[in-house]
């Protein structure tokens, strides 16, 4: 079988993880990269032994050898680049959020109507963790019972200090939401995927902890600490923290909160589903185990075990029990699910997708907009 050739646009922190995931799935090759920072792109191409390095996006998209393009650029570039890729009839795997607003996502979805051959995915990788998928499988088999509540959080500390800065803080690049759009959509995507239901109503409180931040004179990569002694004070209008109550179309009520200013948390995403038979809770920072709670018998910890988990989960877990799998493995699983879909000749809208599609990504953008509106209104908003 012919190997699938891919190109990566954007070679920062997340672009490098896409390259690594492609290397690991075994039947695809990253043959080209492109970045606005041509020096960075050439460094990454040399380091990863990638044969082609383009100085502009169009040359990579036009490369006839490339069948799939990964868009790992900042949010404000997603629509333009994604639409160029779609127009060329090439498969596309985009970083989240899908776009700056729902107007942009609707434009992409309209364009896809004329290119049904294009497989489209958004990198919501937390739905791909083996135990998140195991919770979904147990729910579908009735082992959790009727779902009653969903709750949890996603906490980070990489913007804890007023001197912490990144392009995500600037709304003209990131969009009108930061914390909810950047990490809250991960939480919402995972919960909606697990329960097979949509969040349809929200009531939110968004908080900007630092109304002014000190932007360093030199560029800072995501999750890095600036060593610059020169700063420019910048007004901040996007949120550092958000709390959201919600209702789903299956009758489930819930609440989650997200933060980028909570000390000690690197990637603290926790998801709990409370059902009539049991409750299940999963924490990404202990990703190989999940807590199962009962009323009338002892609670337990269920460990990831390929010998015991549901058969639908097996394609996305590879290590024996006791050998922890983590974020890089979930990222690889998302890329594998996308490329395996292409390899099988499947079509979005016809065949079931385990990965998040542009339709999922577009709904996440609508959710973010409803959350922003709710916080401004100080009340419930329907999606």
Give helix and strand order, one letter per element, not per position. EHEHEHEHEHEHEHHEEEEEEEEEHHE
> Structural class from helices and strands?
alpha/beta
**CATH architecture label of the largest domain:** 2-Layer Sandwich
Number of helices: 10
Q: Domains counted in the coordinates: how many?
A: 2
Q: Report the radius of gyration as a whole number of Å.
A: 21 Å
The biggest beta sheet reads:
9 strands, mixed
Helix content: 25-40%
Instruction: Supply the CATH superfamily name of the largest domain.
Output: Dihydrodipicolinate Reductase, domain 2
Mean pLDDT: 95
At CATH level 3, the topology of the largest domain is Dihydrodipicolinate Reductase, domain 2
N- and C-termini, Cα separation:
44 Å
Characterize the structure shown:
The protein is α/β, with parallel strands linked by helices. It folds into two domains: 4-125, Rossmann fold, CATH 3.40.50; 127-324 and 356-382, Dihydrodipicolinate Reductase, domain 2 (2-Layer Sandwich). The chain has ten helices and 17 strands. It has helices at 13-25, 38-48, 57-62, 78-87, 102-113, 130-140, 171-174, 179-195, 327-343, 358-377; strands spanning 4-9, 28-34, 52-54, 68-71, 91-94, 120-122, 147-155, 199-207, 212-216, 231-235, 241-248, 253-259, 268-275, 279-283, 289-293, 300-303, 381-382. The strands form three sheets. It has a nine-stranded mixed sheet.
């Amino acid at each position: 079988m012919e190997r699938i050739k891919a190109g990566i646009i954007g070679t920062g922190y997340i672009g490098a993880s896409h390259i690594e995931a492609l290397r690991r799935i075994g039947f695809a090759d990253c043959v080209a990269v492109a970045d606005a920072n041509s020096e960075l792109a050439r460094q990454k191409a040399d380091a990863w032994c990638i044969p082609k390095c383009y100085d502009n996006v169009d040359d990579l998209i036009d490369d006839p050898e490339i069948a799939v393009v990964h868009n790992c650029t900042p949010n404000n570039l997603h629509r333009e680049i994604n639409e160029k890729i779609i127009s060329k009839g090439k498969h596309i795997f985009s970083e989240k959020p899908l776009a700056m607003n729902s107007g942009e996502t609707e434009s992409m979805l309209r364009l896809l109507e004329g290119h049904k051959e294009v497989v489209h995915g958004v990198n919501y990788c937390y739905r791909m963790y083996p135990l998140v998928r195991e919770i979904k499988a147990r729910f579908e088999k009735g082992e959790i019972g009727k779902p009653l509540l969903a709750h949890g959080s996603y906490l980070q500390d990489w913007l804890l200090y007023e001197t912490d800065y990144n392009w995500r803080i600037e709304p003209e690049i990131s969009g009108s939401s930061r914390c909810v759009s950047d990490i809250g959509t991960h939480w919402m995507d995972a919960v909606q995927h697990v329960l097979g239901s949509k969040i349809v109503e929200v009531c939110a409180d968004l908080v900007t902890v630092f109304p002014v931040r000190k932007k360093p004179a030199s560029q800072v990569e995501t999750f890095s600490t600036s060593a610059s002694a020169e700063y420019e004070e910048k007004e901040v209008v996007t949120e550092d923290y958000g709390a959201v109550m919600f209702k789903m179309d299956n009758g489930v009520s819930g609440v989650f909160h997200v933060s980028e200013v909570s000390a000690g948390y690197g990637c603290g995403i926790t998801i709990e589903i409370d059902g009539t038979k049991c409750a299940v809770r999963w924490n990404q920072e202990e990703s190989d185990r999940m807590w199962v709670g009962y009323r009338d018998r002892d609670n337990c910890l269920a460990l990831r075990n390929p010998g015991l988990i549901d058969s639908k989960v097996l394609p996305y877990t590879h290590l024996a029990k006791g050998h922890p799998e983590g974020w890089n493995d979930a990222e690889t699983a998302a890329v594998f699910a996308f490329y395996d879909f292409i390899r099988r000749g499947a079509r979005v809208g016809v065949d079931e997708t385990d990965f998040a599609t542009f339709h999922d990504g577009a709904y996440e953008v609508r959710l973010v907009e409803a959350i922003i509106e709710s916080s401004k209104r100080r009340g419930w908003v329907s999606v």
